[in-house]
Write a structure and sequence with these properties.
- The protein is mainly alpha-helical.
- It has one domain.
- It is built from 4 helices and 2 strands, in the order ααββαα.
Length: 77
């Protein structure tokens, strides 16, 4: 299981950017005002009163179909 209730929005933005659009479709914003939102996916799902297990299942299915996380690129200058 790649995505859990404890997955932080920063992790989603950096490693699983392809999940941003599906999350927006169900009303969960990963990025606000150009910055990554603070907190965890589980906290937001609870706040919005959504079905945690159903959402985690769908997100992990997408990750599985995509082949896992994106490779991170770091430019240390």
């Amino acid at each position: 299981m790649w995505i859990t209730k404890d997955t932080e929005f920063e992790t989603i933005a950096l490693k699983f950017p392809y999940l941003i659009s599906p999350l927006l479709e169900i009303g969960i914003k990963v990025i606000e005002c150009g910055d990554v939102k603070w907190g965890t996916l589980g906290e937001e799902i609870l706040k919005l009163g959504l079905d945690l297990d159903k959402i985690l299942y769908k997100l992990n299915k997408i990750v599985e179909e995509h082949g896992g996380p994106e490779k991170e690129i770091s430019l240390d200058i």
